[in-house]
Amino acid sequence: MKKFGFIITCLCFSLSVFPQQKNQKQQQKFTTTNKKITVYTTAANTKLRLTPTDNLDFTASKQPIETEISIFVEPSKRFQSFLGIGGAITDASAEIFAKLSKEKQTEFLNAYYDTQKGIGYSLLRTTIQSSDFSSGSYSYIEEGDKDLKTFSIDHDRKYRIPMIKEAIKTAGGKLTTYATPWSPNAFMKNNKNVLKGGKLLPEYFQSWANFYSKFIKAYNKEGIPIWATSVQNEPMATQTWESCLYTADEERDFLKNFLGPTLKKDGLGNVKIIAWDHNRDLMVQRANVIFSDPEASKYVWGIGFHWYETWTGAQPMFDNVARVHEAYPDKKLLFTEGCVEKFDAAKYQFWPNAERYGTSMINDFNNGTVGWTDWNILLDQFGGPNHVGNFCFAPVHADTTTGELIYTPSYYYIGHFSKFIRPDAVRVSTSVSRSYLSSTSFLNKDGKMATVVMNNTDNEITYNFIIATEQAIVKIPSHAIQTLVY
């Protein structure tokens, strides 16, 4: 019996060790040997915009003391894989893009989608039918057409589809693209209006599920592969624009009884489904309800979220992202929308707008988020067009009277992530010793590490940058963001 027990023990030990050895072998070892650090900086009250500012050597690290500020990167501790960063091509963005000269269109596309000339966006969100950022409400079917016999995406062929195709081409032939509805048709809703909330009537659940399938197939046919769809944009908000309400139970039931099975039946089971697609405030409750139901959960890739919970005056709820991640580690987290509200042309270069992006992106990534999508990639000099007057900022604006493009600090802050952290990168452990700085790091497939550091204080800060047993001394200006590539 003792000998038999010994064999069992050895067998269990070998079964537990071999996968670990395999994983360790598969994990690419990162080293700083013979590497230099290239530092790129964007800073307020300077001309620095994604500008190379330093080329530093590593030296042997020493124990930092408490009066020093330090950032610690531990390359062997790795977390989520990176999907991408991008923005939304809305009707508004496409309409303004069409007004630009060919020269400015090329400049704009390169600025966002070219990895060398621009910031290398790799993710794209678009709308199913109209949103507030359209010149007016419209639909792909005639009102009352329950059977979707009149379904056509001809509306999108004028502006949106051509722009998306140009973006894909500039990005090298691929953009991970997902689409979101703002509202079903008026006849499908209890308020008989695409605007101002309302609910999807039960007798139209199947028609509406069929609608997603029709859209995805139509866009696929256009050469725009739809990677994912979300159930509903902001399902807990009665907006003055296109909106539709779902409680957590209602979204769960629509998912498991209609949308999930319909996509699968129509040969679209590979299309990911994103739940929630609203603010961080209620995302934990939504995840609990949907993911605790196995029949609903099996259809859902992950949770999408926005940053507008601050409309109440409260602070961003970054911890809720972490709570979902720790409770449902097999589900993905995707930031699906954020923009700076209440457009004011006097604030094009208002630095706190950019710092809002940097703070959110660092926190969201450190809490397990795999991708991050800005809202409109382009708006005009009025923060539109928007058919209900909900004018907002975009990272880039076009003055349609002069034809010029206006790059805001937000564009550059986003670029400090999207240009240097590429799809399939893996986040690695990064920590800071003082709250004056915030930071995140990703190891790219080519073996290069990118660490983003943000300083939103009024002071220049010198910090120890420590990777395993080596370090460098780095300076970051006040109100600045840096990416260290090594």
From TrEMBL:
Gene3D superfamilies the record matches: Glycosidases, Golgi alpha-mannosidase II
InterPro entries named among the record's database cross-references: GH, GH30_C, Glyco_hydro_30, Glyco_hydro_30_TIM-barrel, Glyco_hydro_b
Keywords on record: Glycosidase, Hydrolase, Signal
GO-annotated molecular function: glucosylceramidase activity
GO cellular component: membrane
Secreted keyword on record: no
Residue ranges of domain Glycosyl hydrolase family 30 beta sandwich in the record: 424-484
UniProt keyword Signal present: yes
Residue stretches making up the Glycosyl hydrolase family 30 TIM-barrel domain: 84-421
Pfam families noted in UniProt: Glyco_hydro_30, Glyco_hydro_30C
Entry's Gene Ontology BP terms: glucosylceramide catabolic process
Family recorded in the similarity comment: Belongs to the glycosyl hydrolase 30 family.
Protein name: Glucosylceramidase
Organism expressing this protein natively: Flavobacterium circumlabens
